[in-house]
């Protein structure tokens, strides 16, 4: 049971992260489209850059929300580094997804079944969730091996247990 619980928690956070990152990534693309239209930009490259940045920011935010742990409070620089890493991973995934989708071979006189913008959203989601999952696995390994101690919340029935690393006060 000691090894099953973290695996199930990470699986649940991954599923929640995929859902949140997908939704926020598509919302980010919508916001990017609105910015493109209302700011009067005319370049196609600007539109694509807005799409990639919007999808990456949305997917990174979704991954950050899904993988944020409320049972311990990390330091502010650690939270900022985690957020920045997920945002950059989302934007990198969006760029990679667009590059993959834009290079698909399309038959003559037929549009693509899946547009490159769809691949942009999928790439942003995969990039952000992969980075979040990797950071969570490393964090769990550090906690299980006792390499790091976190500032835990006070033991309160409304909050729950303080952490796996520290027992309840006697």
What is the element layout, followed by pairings?
Elements: H1 4-38, H2 44-67, E1 72-73, H3 76-102, H4 116-145, E2 151-152
Antiparallel strand pairs: 1-2
Distance between the termini: 24 Å
Strand arrangement, major sheet: 1-2
How many DSSP E strands? 2
Low-confidence stretches: 150-156
The structure class reads mainly alpha
Give the overall silhouette.
elongated
| Secondary structure: helix percent | 55-70%
Largest sheet: 2 strands, antiparallel
Count of runs of 4 or more consecutive helical residues? 4
* β-sheet strand percentage: under 5%
Total domain count = 1
Backbone CA Rg: 19 Å
The overall average pLDDT, rounded, is 82
Structure notes:
The protein has 170 residues and is an all-alpha fold. The protein has one domain. Strands 1-2 form a two-stranded antiparallel sheet. About 4% of the residues have low confidence.
Summarize the structure.
The protein has 170 residues and is an all-alpha fold.
Features:
single chain; 170 residues; mainly alpha; two-stranded antiparallel ribbon
């Amino acid at each position: 049971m000691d090894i099953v619980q973290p695996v199930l928690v990470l699986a649940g956070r991954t599923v929640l992260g995929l859902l949140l990152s997908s939704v926020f990534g598509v919302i980010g693309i919508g916001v990017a489209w609105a910015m493109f239209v209302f700011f009067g930009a005319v370049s196609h490259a600007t539109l694509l850059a807005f799409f990639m940045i919007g999808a990456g920011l949305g997917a990174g935010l979704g991954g950050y929300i899904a993988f944020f742990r409320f049972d311990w409070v990390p330091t502010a620089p650690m939270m900022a580094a985690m957020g920045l890493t997920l945002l950059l991973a989302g934007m990198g995934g969006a760029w990679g997804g667009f590059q993959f989708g834009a290079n698909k071979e399309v038959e003559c006189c037929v549009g693509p079944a899946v547009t490159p913008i769809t691949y942009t959203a999928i790439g942003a989601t995969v990039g952000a969730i992969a980075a979040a999952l990797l950071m969570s696995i490393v964090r769990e390994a550090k906690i299980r091996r006792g390499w790091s101690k976190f500032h835990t919340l006070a033991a309160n029935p409304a909050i729950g247990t303080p952490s796996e690393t520290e027992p309840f006060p006697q």
